[in-house]
Each structure stands twice: as C-alpha cells, then as structure tokens.
Amino acid sequence: MRKPVILITGAGGEIGHGLIEQLAAEGQSAIITIDLNPLDDMLRPKVMREFVGSILDKNLLNRILSEYEVDMIFHLAALLSTRGEFAPLAAHQVNVEGTLNMLDFAQSQGESHGRPVVFLYPSSIAAYGLPSLEIKEKAGRVKEHEWTLPTTMYGCNKLYCEHLGRYYNLHYKQLAAEKLSGKVDFRSIRFPGLISAVTVPSGGTSDYAPEMIHAAAQGQAYACFVRPDTRIPFMAMPDAVNALLKLARADRSQLTKTVYNITAFNPSADEIRDLVLQGFPGATITFEPDLKRQAIVDSWPADVDDSAARNEWGLDPKYNLETAFSEYLIPAIRARYKNANR
Ligand code: AKB
C-alpha cells in the first residue's frame, strides 16, 4: 500500500516555512518535502519524510511516485526574478522544466490512484509587464488578463507555467482515445511581494521591503535599491499561506479561473521606510536606486484587482498595512533577533 500524503517542493523556502508550520499545527496531513537543501531543525520534525534533491531529478520523482499516493502538491520551488536575470537558462530549467516534471508527476499520480491531484502553483506579479511608469499609474488595479507581457525570465517562466497547468488540467493529450485531462486540478495564485517575520528572501526584486525591516531589526544600515515612490502590492506571509490553503480547499465548482490575483496593501518604498522607522526609531535607511532592478519593479503593477479571489474562494487577508507592521512584523522580528542574540 502506498501512503497518502501532501507533497511540498522548495519546502525550505519562505512560503514553505509558513506552510509547513500551518499544516503541522492543524495536525491532519502527512507531509513529504523536496528541497535542494536539508530542512532546518525546526521544520524537520513536522514532516513525515524529507527528500534532499532536485525536482529536475526524474529518478527521485519516480521513487516518490512508487512509495506515496500524493493527493495535493504545493509546488513552491523556483528561482526568483533577480537571480533569474543573472542565470536565465538555470531559471528556465528550474522554473519551467522543473514545473513540467511536477505536472507530469501529478498526472501520473492522478492516473495511478484515480483521483485528481490538487496542484497549487505560486505565480507572481512578475507575470505582468507594464511598459512605462505613466501607463503603470493609469492602469490602476490590474486584472488577471491585462498587461501580461513580462520583462524578466522569471516572469516569462511563471506566465508560461500558468498556461502549462491549465493545459494539463483541461486539455492534456486531447487527441487520445480516452479522456486523460482532469487528473491535475491546477490552481494558481499570482502572489504580490511577500514579507515574512521568520525568513529573509533571496534572489527576488521585491526583496527591498523585507530586507529593510530585517536590517533595521539587526541594527544594520540599509540602502534601498528602489526609489522612494516605488509602489507594488505586498502581503504578510501568514496571509499568503492562508490564501494558498483556502484556494487548495475551495470547491472546484466555485472556481472560474486557473489563476487569481491576490493583494493586501500596496505601500510606496517610502511608506514602508516610515513604518520601519516607527518600529525601529534608530534605523538608518537610505535610498540608492539600482536603475536596472528599479526597471523590473517599475514594470510590475502598482496594484492588482483581486475581486475574483475574494468572491470565488473567500480571500480575506487579516493584515492591512498598519496591522501587518504593528501586530505581526515588528513584534515578531524584534523577538526573533533578540532571541538570536542571546
Ligand atoms: C521576486 O521578487 O522575484 C518575487 C516575486 C515578486 O515573485 N518576490
């Protein structure tokens, strides 16, 4: 007998951390993970089995297929937007070939146990590409189908994989004698920039917000790599994890889309600085825009329309801009570094 489980790829990353904590707290799911690096000591006891390896390793995926019945996949492994511009082929390999491997893995699972495999895919605001600041300002709250002309390798990868997921879900091998589609129940969220109190991101371009807060908490000066007026949507990590779980558990019949925007607040970099200074009054935060990274953030929308997510599966972030800082980020980050310095 194979064992029924939830599979999380890229499990040691930012979203993976929060997701494993939440699923483990609920105590109802057996979790197996894949990550290139071993999980940290806090996470390891919370999962049933940890595979240290790559989603590009088909032998590893076949081994998992033969041992486990996977009903749900959170495919979080990715190489983010800044790193992807230094290594576009590696980004394509991880983000596209890796995702294709995982979709094919889900298809094989679905065919072998006969139930659709719910496949959660974190896409990103990087899937958008607005051609100028003037158009960005005029565009307002961008809808899922608007301005999807990404400028980064990562954004192109995310957009294409949204389509791959839709293909597996609805049209896989459409010319075969028997119907094979529907085994992968693909659901995707276009995440805004995420800010966690627990982890510091690496390799992304929305990283200026979390970097600013974590640097301030550690008493380090921070030079922000975008202009003070730079504006994109953000969300606190606990709300991002809740959104992923809400979409995973939504009744399929309620969903009219494969991809949903979500957001919670969209401060300028200057407004983030003000809030960080309220929490850490002695912090030194300056602005030294890196024009190339700035151009990437300028191509992302200032805001997104997430009404479909709110109406169809009940997206309802707990934290607004003020409470994200006052109730979550500042106290949790302060405690984190205080404990780390003990
Ligand atoms: C990045 O900056 O690459 C990511 C994202 C917005 O998806 N955080």
Summarize the SSE layout with pairings.
Elements: E1 3-9, H1 14-26, E2 31-35, E3 49-52, H2 58-67, E4 68-75, H3 81-86, H4 88-113, E5 117-124, H5 133-139, E6 141-142, H6 153-170, E7 184-191, E8 193-195, H7 208-217, E9 222-224, E10 234-236, H8 237-249, E11 259-261, H9 269-279, E12 285-287, H10 291-298, E13 303-304, H11 307-313, H12 321-340
Parallel strand pairs: 1-2, 1-4, 2-3, 4-5, 5-7, 6-13, 7-11, 8-10, 9-12
Bound molecules: 2-amino-3-ketobutyric acid.
Characterise the protein shown here.
The protein has helices spanning 14-26, 58-67, 81-86, 88-113, 133-139, 153-170, 208-217, 237-249, 269-279, 291-298, 307-313, 321-340; strands at 3-9, 31-35, 49-52, 68-75, 117-124, 141-142, 184-191, 193-195, 222-224, 234-236, 259-261, 285-287, 303-304. The protein is α/β, with parallel strands linked by helices. The chain has a domain at 78-193 and 234-264 and 301-319: 3-Layer(aba) Sandwich (Rossmann fold), CATH 3.40.50. A 7-stranded parallel beta sheet has the order 3-2-1-4-5-7-11, with helices on both faces. A two-stranded parallel sheet has the order 6-13. Helix 2 (58-67) runs parallel beside helix 4 (88-113). The longest helix has 26 residues, at 88-113. The N and C termini lie far apart (48 Å). The mean pLDDT is 96. The structure holds 2-amino-3-ketobutyric acid. The site of 2-amino-3-ketobutyric acid (AKB) has 11 residues, from loops.
